[in-house]
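Session log. Operator J.P. requested a structure for one protein chain; no other inputs attached. Running the standard single-chain path with token output.
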Amino acid sequence: MAAFSQYFEQKIINWTRGTAFATTPTALEIRLHRSNPLDDYSGADEVPGGVGYVKQAIVLSAPSSIVSTGSSTVNVGNILFGPATGAWGSITHFSIHGSATDTNFYFFGAFLAAQSVITGGSYSIPNGTLSILVR
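Structure written below.
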């Protein structure tokens, strides 16, 4: 399950109040974490660079709505991290940010199960399996 970041929550509230909304991100990236980044990013423990880890682009689908559950979006396409050139530890969470010139923090969440990535291993998120639900 994913949640809005504190940054994004404030942008939504300000837009609803009639004040300016942030510029739309032109592209998004997903980052892997070994702990919960929290809504203010203070708990972030992103896999470090230099061990074969590189932030990956993520494309989100158009929203779909179901009256009883809300609106959701999923990742479009497979996302592959690695191969690892060193141990990454246990991957438990993700965060989604703008990429290029917009590195703002938008969403975060936990994966269903932790997965350890060892040297030579990789981490994948199959098409349509990362879901962001807005209620």
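Operator note: The beta strands are 2-4, 28-33, 56-58, 64-66, 70-74, 79-81, 89-98, 105-117, 123-125, 131-134.
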